[in-house]
Amino acid sequence: MADLRVTVDDRELGATWTDDAPATRRALEDALPLSGDAVRWGDELYFDVPVDVPAENGCEVVPVGAVAYWPPGSKLCLFWGETPASVDDEPRAASPVNVVARLSDTSALEGVDGGARVRVERLE
To answer: What is the mean pLDDT, run by run of 10 residues, along the chain of 124 residues?
Structure first.
């Protein structure tokens, strides 16, 4: 069962918290709901969040559907495919990110453009 509702324009997605970066997760949970206008970088969307936490179990290669925090820019990122940094078809961040959740289905993100409005909130 999903923990989070991720809305990208008119597309609603479910996401489940992971245990990969617990301090980052706590900081993001405390800041919910989060929203912003996203930038698209390949098959990744990212937007500013009011959270400042250091790298925690950071990785560049992430699974499809990863929801991750990028410490250098205080961004929340949604990954669903190749980015300009990818090798082959792997989702790859520009630099290490803290993975905090996983989207259950990313197919709705295929046609999303940069500038999409993203909102992340708890499911009640």
So the answer is: 94 97 98 98 97 97 98 97 94 98 95 93 90
Q: Is residue 40 part of a domain?
A: yes
Strand partners, 36: 118
Q: What is the pTM of this model?
A: 0.96
Give dist(CA 97, CA 53) in Å, integer: 11
**Pair 67, 99: CB distance under 8 Å:** yes
Q: How far is residue 117's CA from residue 9's CA, in Å, rounded to a whole number?
A: 5
Distance CA 110, CA 24 (A): 27
Token pair in block for residue 25: 């997760």
**CA-CA distance, 74 to 13, in Å (whole number)?**
22
Question: Is 85 part of any domain?
Answer: yes
